[in-house]
Design goal:
This protein is mainly beta and 120 residues long. The protein contains no helices and eleven strands. The strands form two sheets. Strands 2, 4, 5, 6, 9, 10 and 11 form a seven-stranded mixed β-sheet that branches. Strands 1-3-8-7 form a four-stranded antiparallel β-sheet, with no helix packed on it. Strand 4 and strand 5 form a beta hairpin. It starts with a strand and ends with a strand.
Length: 120
Amino acid sequence: QVQLVESGGGLVQPGGSLRLSCAASGSIFSINRMGWYRQAPGKERELVAVFFGTGRTNYADSVKGRFTISRDNDKNTVYLQMNSLKPEDTAVYYCNADVKSRSYYGMDYWGKGTLVTVSS
């Protein structure tokens, strides 16, 4: 019932920037939380940034000061502005949302992911 579609990934040089977008669509009453996770080869999926319904944000220590998460409530879209990218940021980035719908008070949904590669 709910779909998350990411965009904006690609190849970028170290020190460069990318802006990821995630648009949620479907049977949505409201979105309790939207955020980004990432998974590098051979590593566990990890939280990158979260935008809570209260407006509060949370970031992984490794991206603080470099990444900024924002939200457009009217479009049910969350963005991740990624600056000063490092090779260790290379990963598949997944959008995640906790959504309130007619069927569920809250349920997690995941996008298919978008690949970010940081390399010279």
